Amino acid sequence: MKRIYGLLAGATLGLALLVGLPATANAQQAAAPSAQAQAQATALGDGYFYAWDLPYKSGASCAWFNSDNNWGDDCGGFRNRASSVMNNSAHGNYANLYYHPNGTGAWACIAPGDTWQDLTYYYFTWGPADGKGQSTNNNIASFRWTTTQCGQ
Questions:
Q1: Which of 88, 111, 110, 95 is CA-nearest to residue 143?
Q2: Are residues 118 and 141 in the same domain?
Q3: What is the predicted pLDDT for the residue at 33?
Q4: Rounded CA gap, 143 and 34, in Å?
Q5: Which residues pair with 145 in a beta bridge?
């Protein structure tokens, strides 16, 4: 009789553990951050816009904290040199990349937290005809932070 009670007690304990496992797994899943929270955390960086003169974030680089109307006077003259860029905005801002200095001509728009590894595959698609359709590779002359997606 003691053996039957022991088996029943063991079975009851085993069943309780099995029933408890899904609850534990659900508790762990609930503790994980949502995809939206993870995306927001990724998008909020150090507040700089970065550019490199070679694809895949290699070669000489330059970084800007504020919008810059003339890349020709930064980092040894970075105008028309960028081949890869990264928007590491700390406030979720978009960055407009312009074909000409002073935020003029056509522009391309890069989202917060995004990296364009090879600018050969990205084009000036917004704004006036001057520069529109041109590759952004070695063609960026200025940039501006914007709080609206692809706003001017």
A1: 95
A2: yes
A3: 42
A4: 32
A5: 95
CATH number for the domain spanning 118: value is 2.60.20.10
- The whole-model pTM stands at 0.71
Q: Say yes or no: 142 and 76 in one domain.
A: yes
Is the pLDDT higher at 66 or at 151? Answer: 66
Residues 142 and 115 in one domain: yes
- Please give the Cα distance from 59 to 39 (Å, whole number): 28
Average pLDDT taken over every residue of the chain: 80
Query: What's the rounded mean pLDDT across residues 32-59?
Result: 74
Task: Please give the Cα distance from 86 to 69 (Å, whole number).
Answer: 18
CA atoms in the 13 A half-sphere facing the CB of 127: 22
For residue 16, pLDDT beyond 60 = no
Q: Report DSSP letters for the chain, one per residue.
A: -HHHHHHHHHHHHHHHHHHHHHHHHHHHHHHSPPHHHHHHHHH--SSEEEEEEETTTEEEEEEESS-BS-GGGSTTT-TTT-SEEEEE-SS--EEEEEEEGGGEEEEEEE-TT-EES-GGG-B--BSSSTTTT-BSTT---EEEEESSTT--
